[in-house]
Design brief:
Blueprint (H helix, E strand, L loop, with lengths): L2 H13 L60 E6 L5 E9 L5 H12 L2 E7 L3 H4 L4 H5 L9 H8 L3 E7 L10 E5 L3 H14 L9 E4 L33 E5 L1 H8 L6 H15 L1
The structure holds zinc ion.
């Protein structure tokens, strides 16, 4: 591997979620040394993903929807609920790709009466081969072009996407990397969290503007800005773009933990999201 390839490997490893959008180029391929099985599809993805896109209309093979290796219903499930609301919540890296992204998106949809698009991966051995669900079925948000999802987002004024960044960032559990191309929504969500966060005292919440912040200890949002125009969350009705929330595994688990210890966290998070979206 040359120096450039090595750099790409490091970048992809650090980014983890893969939502680096435009930051990662085809060099991300270097991040797949574990793909040793012999399918002809193996070496053609970019940005570190196995599938280059979902639909296959605008990308090189392999595309998930035409794959014979990983099948809808068997290896992944798509859930769509059009609530005719102003807002749609997205979890395109759900199931076993990012812990609790599906569950949190569903909870948001049900609590705030938002429409929902969820992609939940539960790959069988035939689909996964030597890879895990993340490495086989994670499709970077800017390449996630399921026509059902694109149409759904395009019918909504606002969108919010739930993601999980990799623990290897070393972030504090309360670090929220706030991105998406709608700067107004980004600022509104950050302000709404800051206004409410003192109500939750188990750890501190730190909403960070992913597009502008400099990485600091425990708060590294580098490369997960979610600002690419093609990012599914930004493909809203009026073109104003959406809000992307990259969160720790821990805070997603706490938001879903039924213990009353986390009631205040839920009050802060759902209150802030609802206020930002109004
Ligand atoms: Zn993600």
């Amino acid at each position: 591997m040359n120096a450039k390839g090595l750099l790409a490997l490091v970048v992809v490893t650090v980014v983890g979620c893969g939502n680096a959008d435009e930051q990662l180029g085809a060099e991300g391929e270097a991040a797949k040394p574990s793909e040793l099985d012999s399918s002809a599809e193996e070496l053609s993805s970019d940005e570190g993903d196995y599938y280059n896109c979902f639909a296959g209309s605008g990308c090189a093979s392999p595309a998930l929807s035409t794959s014979t290796r990983c099948l809808k219903g068997r290896d992944y499930k798509v859930t769509v609920n059009d609530a005719q609301s102003d807002v749609v919540v997205l979890s395109i890296h759900g199931g076993l790709i990012e812990p609790n992204s599906s569950e949190l998106a569903q909870a948001i949809s049900s609590k705030l009466h938002y429409s929902l698009y969820d992609f939940a991966a539960h790959g069988t051995a035939a689909c996964l081969g030597t890879l895990n669900d993340f490495n086989r079925l994670h499709i970077t948000a800017a390449n996630f072009d399921d026509p059902t999802a694109v149409r759904l987002v395009g019918r909504h004024k606002k969108a919010v996407a739930i993601h999980g960044y990799n623990d290897s960032r070393g972030n504090d559990p309360g670090t929220l990397c706030v991105g998406g191309s709608n700067a107004k929504l980004v600022q509104a969500f950050i302000a709404a969290v800051n206004q409410r966060k003192s109500r939750f005292t188990l750890y501190s919440l730190r909403p960070i503007d992913a597009a502008t912040a400099t990485a600091s200890r425990g708060a590294d949002c580098t490369g997960i800005t979610g600002t690419a125009r093609a990012n599914l969350v930004n493909r809203t009705l009026d073109g104003a773009g959406g809000l992307q929330l990259e969160m720790s595994d821990a805070i997603k688990a706490d938001l879903l933990n039924p213990s009353t210890r986390y009631d205040a966290l839920r009050t802060v998070f759902y209150g802030a999201l609802s206020a930002a979206m109004n």
